[in-house]
């Protein structure tokens, strides 16, 4: 079987993560080219990893007939346009989340991808996390029983810069969007959302029109209920937990820690805080999502994490925003889809 | 110092718990009499514990001038009336929760108690649980920092009988009321409630007009947010957990278990389920609340768990009911208080 | 069924523990009398618990025909003599450990008890601890498989006084004796002992001819191997753990803690130290051993924790002393038995 | 700074582990050549990882003047000879453990290395494990206080083949050797060893003259005591734990697990078994030891895990064998060194 030839568009942090995963851990694929509007970044990655071509202009990647698939790792506002062009060029697509902050543009991507008959996988990497994937497996094996309640905790170690906050689309589209996807992945389709938002970490975030602390109640279509709690800052690091309560059992995923060492002395029994940052916690999941993408393209399998998942997570974020704005529960059907 | 002379009204399960606590563990008090409309029950407890008098009619307890304080452990619908009469008789009062299912009758109790100048402690025993009390101590020492989010999980091992469900006042007044009190004890005063309710355990509960699964979002007056999740049945027993997230730390109380033994074999690492029933989990807390009551009366200290706490927990339950009925967030100020 | 009438000889700490257990938790028995050479101590306990008679001279207890059973809770050097006299008086006996520090005197007790046909239970209370008893149950159910290795950790929070050390018989007879019994209870009969002893906590203990830190290797008759590690002082409290490794599984008992609360902040995840003192850790086990004794006597059942168990634990302690003295492994058969 | 040029001798399992670590994770080094007596194995690794040269005869590696350092990953019986020749050729050396099963040959290696002035690091990778290295850091920071007791548990998931057992040197030289090194790394220099050995897993291992279960008592020169327990088979996987008990605190390293998920249902609270195999558990440690080796060579730093450590671990293994053979404690000074 020939290797999948991949082009990477965007050589920033997440582009580099994927470039290394492919180079070091996915022998079924190879990177044929990388582009970045900051071309020196693309050049450095190309040299470090032995990638044969690098460009400033991503059209060079799209126009390379050897390339079968592209990874869209550029800034969010460019995702939809590049995805449409990539589909037109017949490339399979791995697109970082969010696809876009508007329903309309995501629908254009869906249209383009459907028309071109190419595959598109969304970078909801947390679905591939060892803990959360294990809970999914337990569910699929029937060990949880009927889902009754799902609880998701997601807290960042530090808030982003105020500049970023201003263009982020707000906490629900920028941060909760991952948890909305997890609620759909582990739980079910959502019928209704009710969101509380507060400013408890940094008043500047409030001045920028956003919140830093939130709690979102969910009603699922199958009757189950759920809750997501978010905060932009936890003193102890990156807090990523999940609990599923069903008729047969309750499954929960605790945080990962740097070591399993504990020290018992006069002041108590002290063990590690959670891993501090998303790159430490989720590194393996980035490799695993990419391996699945490569496998789906090479072996013509159905993509599991689709652009539709990206659309639904966005709609849930928009519903949460509307819920806060109008101070009432909002049905997902109220949001254009 | 002379011993506190106590009369117990109601010799059922909880009356017996208090009778044993006092007899075996609280040397500062002694039980002078016990009454129950089922007089054989009162007689048996009196004989087993060496209580000198037992009655069918609780007025005999109220009319005994040697008795300084009464415990009201009769059925809920009698609490308020007995409390008013006990106040009039100049007895200090320990009253099981709920005081009543209506605001009006609780206010009559407050009036009677205030007029008589007697003390009244409510039996919110979970405040005295070793785990939750430890979190309160940590908060008071400033180790949690500013409260940002509080999460309470409370699930029963088995639903009550349908007969009981029908007269219980519903899940919010019967079950969540404890969690509302915990939210106020560990958290802060509540401004607004939004409740989701579902029937996932037993359709008969739904037919009786109640829910068996619920999730309640809370907005506190200090800006913090909270969530309570309840279920009438957990396959693994009695699930009683609490998490407080503050600016300095997150504190959480895990369940108590029968042993600390774990067995690692081919099928994984197996440790104990939570203690199955509230009498096992909370036994020490019943003794501790009673010791505090005795101490407050004997030494004329201020009661910490007051009838006002009973009133507020009821109002929160009524707000949750209204939230479900009207499908919207409900401010506590909308509920008569 | 009539209640068992018990006489208690010795009203010190452990005598009081048993007196309270019987009074409060064992309705099948009642205490008829208590004696202590410090008669005011006996008087106080009698008054507090409503015991009808107290004496300075224990012979009054032995001579009381109403009394069916005696608890020997006096100082160690008096245990054997009193036990022999109690047997002669036809009383069933619960005797605190150690029965004696010599094999010869224990054998006299065995002879006296056998001749009189009375029951004698030894106070190896740890067999009744909820954690260790659970491991025994798992073994009996076959869940551990063939025993291969057993590991016992036993560390005290503080060393005893030097005065006590001097009369204690040394760490192996005073402290390890409990662990030797546990090794036989959970493990099997021991064939050989090799002991290392060190002075690492307090040089005064060394000057008194004793050690404060020890590690004892065990060879069991069934081929399994084991290890006990002891220390007279652990900065974090009372450390009582057990691990059993078998062909099917490994079971381990962790320490009990005051609460199940953990706090995660900048400095890590802090949970409780173990319970600090043996009375906290083992309180329930004292009640449970007494309940078993009462049941065995009342219902003529076979005693499970016998004077033979006391003898074997002593012989193991003597073997460990000999091992250190002669710096070699010592077979249990080398010790008079 | 120029990259370190490395030649790898031996392309089997551990040679491949190191080859991947260097290629993917250590940019300061590159592999110039690889050899294996099974040349197709060397060829495959070379092709997969882009190594420019591969050989059947390791002398080609030693004779390549571009190569600065060699990794000796061939079979144990060839380690010492190749190490001597590599030293003569002026190559720095990373040598897999054990260097040899005899003291005499290790001393020849020490002589050769000293004479040539090259560095030699031994592959005691467990020193670089995240858990054990963390305990070392805590010790170095003084958080444990004076070392009093060290306990090491090391159990394999499955015994090796009988063919391997016969040439392995026995459990003490093949398996415990890692734990002896850990005892010296975390603990101190050892003065005396007493070993118990048993056959409890497979009688064939006994027939081959070896044991499959062992418990080794250690006396350290600083007065502390220790114990190692080993088994060739644990039903639940690879059990690698460590406990250090000091005057200030006790630190312990629990096993690593595939996930942090737990499931609570009717049958208890089930979490993961340990990682099953040494490649999963210790993968990161292989990379970290190699990174240290590269750093020491490139920057002329002192090697931390030396051939002397290999010698001492071997001597401890030989002392344990002698202890079992002569059924007595054996001083390390009795073993040629």
Written overview of the protein:
Four copies of one chain form a homotetramer. Chain A has helices at residues 13-25, 39-49, 59-62, 76-88, 103-116, 130-140, 162-167, 171-174, 176-187, 203-207, 278-298, 307-326, and strands at 4-9, 29-35, 54-55, 69-72, 92-95, 120-122, 147-155, 190-198, 213-220, 225-231, 239-246, 249-253, 261-265, 268-271, 330-331. Chain A is 40% helix and 25% strand. With 337 residues, chain A is α/β, with parallel strands linked by helices. Chain A is built from twelve helices and 15 strands. The model of chain A has no long low-confidence stretch (mean pLDDT 96). In chain A, the strands form three sheets. Chain A has a seven-stranded mixed β-sheet with strand order 12-11-7-10-9-8-15. In chain A, helix 1 (13-25) crosses helix 11, helix 4 runs parallel beside helix 5 (103-116) and helix 9 (176-187) packs across helix 12 (307-326). The two termini of chain A are 40 Å apart. Chains in contact: A-B, A-C, A-D, B-C, B-D, C-D. Chain A binds chain D through residues 23-24, 27, 48, 50, 130-131, 134-135, 138, 143-144, 248-256, 258-266, and chain D through 23-24, 27, 48, 50, 130-131, 134-135, 138, 143-144, 248-256, 258-266.
Feature tags:
alpha/beta, homotetramer, 337 residues, 15 strands, 25% strand, six-stranded parallel beta sheet
What is the radius of gyration of chain A?
20 Å
Strand content of chain A: 15-25%
Order of adjacent strands in the largest pleated sheet of chain A? 12-11-7-10-9-8-15
Q: Report low-confidence residues of chain A grouped into runs of 5 or more.
A: none
| Distance, first to last CA of chain A | 40 Å
Quaternary:
homotetramer
User: What's the average pLDDT of chain A?
Assistant: 96
Q: Approximately how much helix is present in the residues of chain A?
A: 25-40%
Q: What general outline of chain A do the C-alpha atoms trace?
A: globular
Q: Mind summarizing the main beta sheet of chain A?
A: 7 strands, mixed
Helix count of chain A? 12
Would you count the extended β strands of chain A for me? 15
Most extensive interface:
C-D, 37 and 37 residues
Task: Give the class of chain A from helix and strand content and strand pairing.
Answer: alpha/beta
- Series of H and E elements of chain A: EHEHEHEHEHEHEHHHEHEEEEEEHHE
């Amino acid at each position: 079987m020939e290797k999948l030839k991949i082009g990477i568009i965007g050589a920033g942090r997440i582009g580099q993560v994927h470039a290394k995963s492919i180079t070091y851990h996915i022998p079924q694929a190879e990177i044929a080219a990388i582009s970045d509007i900051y071309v020196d970044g693309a050049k450095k990655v190309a040299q470090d990893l032995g990638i044969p071509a690098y460009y400033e202009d991503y059209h060079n990647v799209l126009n390379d007939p050897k390339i079968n698939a592209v990874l869209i790792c550029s800034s969010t506002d460019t995702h939809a346009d590049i995805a449409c062009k990539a589909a037109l060029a017949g490339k399979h697509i791995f697109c970082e989340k969010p696809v876009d902050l508007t329903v309309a543009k995501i629908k254009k991507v869906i249209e383009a991808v459907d028309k071109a008959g190419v595959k598109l996988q969304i970078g909801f990497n947390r679905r591939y996390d060892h803990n959360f994937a294990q809970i999914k497996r337990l569910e699929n094996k029937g060990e949880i029983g009927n889902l009754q309640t799902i609880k998701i905790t997601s807290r960042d170690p530090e808030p982003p810069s105020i500049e970023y906050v201003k263009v982020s689309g707000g906490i629900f589209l920028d941060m909760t969007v991952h948890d909305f996807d997890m609620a759909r992945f582990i739980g079910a389709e959502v019928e209704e959302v009710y969101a509380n938002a507060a400013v408890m970490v940094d008043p500047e975030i409030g001045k920028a029109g956003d919140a830093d602390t939130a709690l979102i109640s969910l009603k699922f279509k199958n009757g189950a209920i759920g809750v997501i709690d978010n905060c932009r800052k936890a003193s102890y690091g990156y807090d990523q937990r999940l609990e599923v309560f069903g008729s047969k059992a309750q499954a929960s995923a605790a945080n990962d820690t740097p070591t399993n060492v504990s020290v018992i002395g006069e002041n108590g029994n002290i063990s590690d805080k959670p891993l501090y940052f998303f790159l430490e916690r989720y590194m393996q999941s980035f490799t695993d999502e990419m391996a699945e993408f490569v496998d789906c393209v090479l072996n013509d399998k159905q993509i599991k994490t689709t652009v539709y998942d990206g659309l639904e997570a966005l709609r849930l974020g928009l519903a949460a925003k509307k819920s806060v704005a109008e101070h009432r529960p909002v049905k997902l059907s109220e949001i254009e889809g």
